[in-house]
Amino acid sequence: MALESRESTHTRGSSTSRMAHGFARAALGVVALLGLTAALGAQGGDKAKVGEAVKADLTRLAELERGWFEKNRTFTIDLRALGFTPTSGANITMAYASARSWAANATHPTMQPTTCFIVVSQPGAGGTADRPFCSESSEGKQVAAAPAQQVPRQQPATAPARPATQTAQAPAPPTVAPKPVAPAPAAVRRTVRRTTPATVPAPTTVVELPARAPSSGVALASTRAAGGVADAGVTEAVTPSQFSERLNAIVSSALDVSNAKMPELARDPYESTAEYQTRVAQAYATFQRREAEFYARNTRTYVVSIPVKGVKYDADREVVDFAVDPIALPTARSFAAADGARLSVACYTRPYFWCSPDSGMSYDGTDLWRVPRATARSADVLGAPLTLLARFVVGRRDDTRSPAVSLISMELQAKGAAIARWDSTSR
Fold this sequence. Notes:
Layout: H1 2-72, H2 79-82, E1 91-97, E2 102-107, E3 114-120, E4 133-136, H3 138-145, H4 161-168, H5 172-176, H6 185-199, H7 217-222, E5 223-225, E6 235-238, H8 240-259, H9 273-298, E7 300-307, E8 309-314, E9 319-323, E10 331-333, E11 341-343, E12 346-350, E13 353-356, E14 360-363, E15 369-370, H10 373-379, E16 386-397, E17 400-414, E18 417-423
Helix pairs in contact: 1-6, 8-9
């Protein structure tokens, strides 16, 4: 009997030990989950604080550039000359600088893949457009979207209704709902480890920028929204190479006009001070009108006929996609290797043309051209040559003093007839 009592006592002790061990594992799982949540929250808070610090650095850079402009009547890309050192730990790079505008971008390891920018197009304006802003790069978006490759590519980022519907129909919720019984503590811990990396980046996969936005910070900072101007009185039809030649000629002449110095007037010893001052004021007014008169003579509309290549047609979505060769843009190069090249024109062509000093004006019109199946079949979009007619206005705008290229409309043609149109005023 004594032996039976000891065996019974040992069995109960083993059961109690196993239960205690199970509760301990469950407690460890809860602690790990809480710790992971706190870490993610802290990381998000740190990223927000770093973002504000980086934007504060860019704001301080803008103040230094403003002071430099007041002394030199031009901006500079030499951060050392400005005496500027980032306090946020960010890597800040000047994209370009001229007598009329400048731009810079900033990256920080804590903020990856987000990049911050500042673009100043009016010297001394200090308006809302000159404030820093941060956006997630397309490279970061592709990395974040990598686990969800099952989603078809044809779902456009500019039409979020379709992806939202497909997300609601995903099979994940039905597989979880029929399991009301709580799993073992160890299983809970393993599930958290698998799902957390996939679900954390999901809200920022495609939010800040269209999927077609370039990864280059220079192209992003150098390109502004299309439109904002009307057709000029003079219209000229040109090829892409002719368009580049016209731009170079206009920019060269515009730089000569804007950089010219007012001639000094010698005072006649027989004229009074009032007469001399009146003559100087008249000469200054005439000198100031030179820029306005130059752009009045040279502002015009160019209809550029651009051959397309790599045509694809999605019959399910009725979308035509294609590619075009980049268009060369006027650039200025410094003798200093560190300065590199910078654009001599201001681009108002976003989001379908992006401008950079190295690659020129690059087209990216993914999911833009909607062509019904009957129209696509009769026009034979996959067999017949297609032409993109892009209408640009070249001249000076009210929001920039340098020569500007503004995209105002596009037309897709097949066999000489239009099959789709886009207009900046009806987006």
